[in-house]
Write a structure and sequence with these properties.
Length: 468
């Protein structure tokens, strides 16, 4: 064969992996950077699941979605539950019986929760005890500025929402770490998994005592007085509080060229924002669209606001009523079995410093667009829904037709580790579902890294999906 013929053959037969920057023009490049600014705004405003629900509601209301079904015009519904999960739905050209296009993402991120009796003093400092939530590497949370976000239910039943540590004039909090000079026995000689203790993730919250040296617990008392003067809080109020300790500070452009975004909470608020934005921007969708945002994914999707709850069924029942249909159990399940879904969640991109944990031919890379993951789980695909080839075939065509740059990924080498998403909890309804979202670096860390091109392609892919 001639050289030119071989080249042609190679181009036709071998899969081409495409970097977003190589495939777009100057105009789309500008669009990507503008989109990312909105994305970073969202990350800054929505650092907890409650804040995310509020922000999603605000944006949806601005875009003609409503909390009650409107009598005229297309259905554009918001349904929130317990302030921690939310669903947005919009009617399509086809009747609802034809099935829904669903995108589900999660609003919660790994963090430190304050304990129920958090406040104490030791060696003339005041502390608050924390209990980590989700999969964290504990040492990443030491010696960095931390903020407190959350809700307190006061003794008279009123609630109070608190954010401290984000404004430049706010104080911050931190967890101290032992100096390297003395770390030999307590850290250096231990396995990393043993060297950092959950009970040592104690937040420094005060250092100025009240009263004189005869005053009981005067460092703790001083903090309580401050909290009482500012918020009316007494110590017992912490029992009925959900206060989350998160990294203080804003999302930032990363690198000289600003091509990356670094921020806390991109797992999974990158998918939350892109699916929200896709829902706001779709025009004349064929099927009924449903964008679902759930809580508790990082701790196994249990609970009333997690993906294992009956929230989806309830949302669908509301939608059927809005469509003048009786929400019979059997019909709800018939519709769900006809539905298509994307489990919108992040994957881990190849870490250049730890390439050995990935199988490079199948791992996702930063910058290669939206990542589709057929299965998660661990070992022999345990605990994965393992999406159908037919469905992936359909998605391939959809992304090709809509100029979405995309790649496939898996969660590390076969016997290296593993993880899960909400995909399997929706798959039980019989719907087609697959994991689909950007690949990130430093996942679950206080400063996760995403590629701006991937974030935009995720939005573009979700939008094409909802419109299909
Ligand atoms: Mn996730
Ligand atoms: Mn996660």
């Amino acid at each position: 064969m001639k050289k030119a013929e071989i080249e042609k053959l190679s181009k036709r037969l071998i899969t081409e992996h495409r970097i977003v920057w190589d495939e777009i023009d100057e105009k789309e490049k500008e669009t990507i950077f503008n989109f990312d600014k909105e994305y970073q705004n969202f990350l800054n405003k929505a650092k907890t699941e409650r804040e995310a629900v509020n922000e999603i509601t605000r944006i949806a209301l601005e875009n003609n979605f409503s909390l009650k079904p409107n009598k005229k015009g297309p259905i554009k519904l918001i349904k929130t539950f317990q302030g921690k999960s939310i669903a947005l739905s919009a009617s399509g050209k086809m009747p609802i019986d034809e099935g829904l296009n669903i995108i589900v993402s999660h609003l919660d991120s790994p963090r430190l929760d304050l304990k129920q009796n958090p406040l104490y003093e030791d060696i003339d400092l005041a502390f608050m005890k924390t209990h980590y939530y989700g999969g964290i590497k504990k040492f990443q949370w030491l010696t960095r500025p931390l903020a407190i976000h959350g809700r307190v239910i006061l003794s008279d039943g009123r609630f109070l929402d608190i954010v401290v540590g984000e404004d430049d004039t706010d104080p911050v909090f931190t967890i101290a770490d032992i100096l390297p000079h003395l770390a030999k026995k307590v850290q250096d000689d231990k396995k990393v998994s043993d060297a950092f203790d959950g009970e040592k993730l104690n937040l420094i919250v005060g250092s100025i005592p009240l009263g004189d040296k005869d005053t009981k617990e005067r460092f703790k008392l001083a903090v309580l007085k401050l909290l009482n003067d500012k918020f009316g809080i007494i110590e017992e109020d912490f029992i009925s509080a959900e206060l989350e300790v998160v990294p203080a500070g804003r999302a930032r452009d990363l690198g000289w060229d600003r091509g990356l975004t670094a921020s806390y909470g991109q797992d999974d608020r990158s998918c939350v924002f892109t699916s929200l934005q896709a829902m706001m921007d779709i025009k004349n969708p064929k099927n009924t669209s449903l964008v679902l945002f759930v809580d508790k994914e990082e701790i196994g999707s249990d609970g009333a606001t997690g993906a294992k709850s009956k929230f989806l069924e309830s949302v669908l029942a509301d939608l059927m009523i809005a469509n003048n249909k009786e929400p019979h159990y059997h019909d709800i399940h018939k519709i769900l079995m006809k539905s298509r879904a994307l489990s919108a969640d992040v994957n881990g991109a190849i870490d250049p410093d730890f390439q050995d944990v990935h199988e490079k031919r199948n791992a996702a890379r930063l910058g290669y667009g939206l990542c589709v993951t057929k299965f998660t789980g661990s070992g022999g695909k345990y605990s994965a829904n393992d999406a159908n080839a037919e469905y992936i075939g359909w998605l391939r065509k959809l992304f090709r037709d809509n100029n979405v740059i995309w790649q496939t990924g898996e969660l590390g080498k076969i016997d290296e580790g593993g993880g899960g998403t909400v995909a399997k909890f929706l798959a039980v309804y019989g719907m087609e579902i697959i994991d689909c979202g950007p690949a990130v670096l430093s996942m679950h860390s206080p400063f996760e890294i995403a590629h701006k091109g991937d974030i935009y392609m995720t939005y573009k892919g979700y939008k094409a999906f909802l419109e299909s």
